[in-house]
Amino acid sequence: MKRTSEDGQSKLPDNTALKQQQLPAYRLQLSATGVLSCFFATGVFCLGMGIILILSAKSIKEIEIKYTKICGNCAKLREDATNFDKECTCSIPFYLSETMQGNVYMYYKLYGFYQNLYRYILSRSNSQLVGTDLKDVGNCAPFSKSHDGTPIAPCGAIANSIFNDTIILSYKLNSSIPIKVPMLRSGITWWTDKYVKFQNPSSINLSSAFAGTTKPPCWAKPVYELDGEDPGNNGFLNDDFIVWMRTAAFPTFKKLYRRLNRIQYFIEGLPAGNYSFNITYNFPVTRFKGEKSVVLSTLTWSGGSSLFLGLVYTVTGAVTWLASFSMMAVHLTLKDRKVLFIQQ
Amino acid sequence: MGWQQSLQESDVSKVRTIYLNEPLRNSFCKNVISTAKYSMWSFLPRYLYLQFSKGANAFFLFITILQQIPDVSPMGKYTTLSPLMIILIISGIKEIVEDYKRHMADELVNTKTTIVLRENAWKTIMWKEVNVGDIVKASNGQFLPADMVLISSSEPQVTCYVATSNLDGETNLKIRQALLATAEMQTEKQLSSLSGKIECEGPNRHFNTFTGTLYLNGESPVPIGPDQVLLRGTQLKNTQWILGIVVYTGFETKFMQNSIKLPLKRSNVEKVTNVQILVLFWLLLAMSLVSCVGAIVWHEWYGEGIWYFRTKDYSSLSFGFDLLVFIILYHNLIPISLLVTLEIVKYVQAMFINWDEDMHYKGNNVYAMARTSNLNEELGQVKYLFSDKTGTLTCNIMTFKKCTIAGIIYGNFGYSESSPFFLSLSPSVISECCEFNDPELLQNFENGHPTKNYITEFLTLLCVCHTVVPERDGKNIIYQASSPDEAALVKGVKKLGFVFTTRTPTTVTVEAMGENLTFEILNILEFSSNRKRMSVIVRTPTGNIRLYCKGADTVIYERLSENSRFKKETLSHLEYFAKEGLRTLCVAYADLTEKDYQQWLREYKKASTVIQDRMQSLEECYNHIEKKFLLLGATAIEDRLQARVPETITTLLKANIRIWVLTGDKQETAINIAYSCKLIAAHMPRIQLNANSFEATKQAVAQNCEALGTRIGKENDLALITDGETLKYALHSEIKRSFLNLALSCRAVLCCRLSPLQKAEIVDLVKKHVGAITLAIGDGANDVGMIQMAHVGVGISGNEGMLATNNSDYAIAQFSYLEKLLLVHGAWNHFRVTKCILYCFYKNVVLYIIELWFSFVNGFSGQIIFEHWCISLYNVIFTSLPPLTLGIFEQCCSQKSLLIYPQLYRISQAGNTFNTKVFWFQCLNALVHSFILFWMPMKMLENDMVLQGGYTTDFLFLGNFIYTYVVVTVCLKAGLETQSWNKFSHLAIWGSIIIWLVFFAIYSFLWPTIPIAPEMAGQVNMVLACPHFWLGFFIVPIVCLILNLIWKSIRNTCNRTLLEDIREMESSRAQGLHPPTIFKRRYFHTVHDFPKLIKCMPNRHLELHIPSSTGSYSVTPASPKVLLSVDGNFILLVS
Asked: Where is the major localization of this protein (chain A) (predicted)?
């Protein structure tokens, strides 16, 4: 009791605006004019943006071909895991009615493949992929070690289930022999993945670097032999591998596969005409009731199709306008109203 | 009734025996005190125990433990532990700082030195080494180290003076006197040879009681009473030295016994919040179960074909495992930071109350003090105010104004005391110039009026019959009195020439008209609230034995002898005094014969050595001699109303607060005060309940209820006046209910002559049966019961000691400060706390329900969409500031408006801003927002081609989109909730968004340099470079908030409240526009008054806010808004 009185005296308050709760403050008052002008401005902005986005979405040329049913034989073959060593190819001709201007990108798209399962995402070793510790397979269950106990590189369920179809696009110029459309398999990954997150273990050559490890059970070739054409595209630095390792958010997703090398006939993009996809069908999807497709697409300033955003902007703009008009109507009828308090 | 119980419990504590000079036989507790909560070693376990006994913290501890199970946590092992640690550390630091201060103060006290007799010599030792049975020597000005029995002192008559202001706040000195049996014990030798024992009651918390007996070897036992006891915490004054035997030490001293912690009160908002947390917990379980079922269904559907991931066989074991996964996944639905946020917010709010200059009483430099911060928001919800009268509504500065002697009334009838001249003066000046001043009395005295003898006797009585101690300060005499009434009387008669000059323990000397008269005091029969009187038995200078008594009229009148005169006249004068609002005391005397007195004295001695229930037996004994009085007259003392009391009461009534005055004073006085403070208007009909039997009470209550008819239960312009006697029956369980109904139907309730217990009972009755928030305000020890009983207890730190203040939740210096405390601090704090709570829930639901939405697309596998640490830092960093600024700085409207329009208080009072409905509406709003915040980015990214260069993205890319949008939306939502933006609001809202973006940028570059967050590596460059991100950055929060904005605008326009109008007025005033005209305090009783109004504002539509109780004209109550067309030009919207 003594103490509190002493305390009280030593802490005499002073008369500042903060302590007297008199700090200058702006009172947020939803006044009619404020709200209305804000709504009008928002409406105009949204409608404008919406129209721009819808127009740019319309300018995108996109073609998607689902090939699970078309290559039904192959799909059936892959349902049985024991047929893994039997090759199955499938050719899908199609006609491109309009030229695809500019850069063209080729994607594969999977339906019903859950890359976002908790334990699936968990099943990888980032320290292995960055090349520091090849033997660190702790999180990779159930694909961490082979039967004889050798660590798997790259370990884990994600790496094991890599998309392993080969898709080759060929163009039939003047109905003669088809020519292979030149495609680039580099530059399809995020910069940080290629240069920071994924690194091969340092050694004289790749095969010795991966000595003491074994390939994932579903893989046909070890990681250091993924790309026979470009030796730099092997090991953990293989672009297709890196792309696959970024696990998608939804069960239906696209992954960038190739981009058009704009040379020869293809400087302008993909000309209209007859094309065909030659697919080596390896990746089983019918077992999980899924589908596969291949997508060719151009991009605009905002990346891919922004139709949804365009619609959202337009609808929001329209709704705000509608709201502001109706509020203005109400406001005008009540404009002259004044408030009078009568106190008893 | 915890307060009463604890009193009774400590009453039956054990008797203790203290052996003199035998230190080994006295083993009691040490004299070390510790007011600290923790010691160095006990801190961690005790603190953790206290924290984890809170439900929410225990829940998060449970989650943390769950997360340690390998693989069960989708969010890592330490993501709940870390914010929990941060929160525990923050409140731990607060505890340590507070406890450190206590330790320092304790240490200071424990190491003070005192002189003690050890091994036949005086030794200087520290306070903590003092033991029971030690003989302590203290000198002038020193504080006493323990409770002790006075043995001897330097003063004649072995007296000493002590200042007890530390204990009871009373500023007067108290006199203590040692027993004659020990008075000569002064040298070391005498003291060391002392042998015998002291028997006394066990430790208790009553300052003014002590019963003990001293047994000295070879002598007869001597009783020891409170007069011989010196308490720890008191200070020795005007005395060179004293010697005392220690009886209670350390925690057993009365001082420490009184510092026992009060029971914790919880606010209404807190209770509602706890219930919602519990509901949310069940919701969390439900969500987890649904997700588990979802997982089973998904496995049924897909489980077979998932070749890319060998799933385990689905069994009951994994069902349980999944349940834990989902509980961890959704656990953040319960806001982890809510408790600590509220703690900080309320702490600052309490500081605002302490700092408030408007509640600073310059008179004695006292600031308002929030002794607890738990109840800040409860201040905004008070519906029933229970006020003490004396010292609360009035100043408790007594002035002797009038008297009646032998049937003749004296007193100044001059100028009116309520003139503005007096109000502007300081209280001390008023008390000087308004004192008793009637030349007639002196004339009558000097001129040998027939009543001269009565006048002499009357004035002598006032000089002798009291417990005032005179202190000489040069020529002046300062009177030290524990009762302000007594001081007023003694001062009053001093002016009339009867000066009380000296008091020794056995005598009182009076200078009566220049002549020194010495009265031998034989006995003092103390005042108690039960007895309502005090008497002294004296031997007059002429050698007669006489008993002087003064007390309440009822107790005196029933003890008057048959041949007492002036009964009737005095009674009518008493009524007159009471009507004036004066406090009255009757004075009477009785002559005793030597024989009667000696007989009574034996009885008295017997009663005074009883150890158990000594007070009771003494009172009985007193009763035997207090009889056959002869009436002399009565005194009237004025107790002035405090400044601004009528205005405050008017304001509080407008704020829809019902005011009940509960007083121990007389009915007439109370009614008078109620009039003068405008609680009761002159035209107000009164219901008086005064009955003296159960049947009569029952009948009166029933009769009045019947008379009210249908108006019962509604607020009527009535005043109910009742007294303690009637209440004794009215609070009987049988008619309690109907009495309460009757009381609730009245605008003002006045209960007089109540005992402290009855005050508490009434508060309890309203609290239990009405379910509204109650506030009790008082200043004296008799108000402690109701202060503790009410939801909010307010103590007035005034003249009547510290007891009320020490038991209160808020202490203020003046009744009028209640206006600011309730209308401004209460209303603001209520808005702030509720907004803060709602917002905390909102932001958590928004973020964490997204996990549920994501579960629908990831096969209920338990994957989270955000990065672990982002999730756990959400509450402690990225969105921690907006709730703080909402809780600390938010203002619904300015202080000025709140005070000018007390009607605004009704908003917080009704609690419409925070109840189950509002809570779940807010949760629903959060649910909608979270859905938009998940669905829109999902649709945006569904296409997977959102980046220049055609790169595809991953799940965390989506997560970062959503997370950023959530932070932006949630911060802007706080902005939308903030009605008063100051610099801190800007800092919090924009700062939080910026902090997240900066964190995001830094965090994405850590891997692999620092082995943390590999999945975040490179996210920031891709996310910020993505045009879709920025397109969504604008539109997603807008889509979320535009719904709220439209909703708000609609509500503002269609269902406009007073608050909106006032806010609009304020903002237009701030912008320098002409504010809408507001007519204040104008009375329009009938429809015929409208033309007057119309003249004021031609060609305008008028909206009238008319209180529903006006009702002088008929508007169908069924439709709240009615269009009244008065004439062609006007439309009246009547609500």
From this structure: membrane
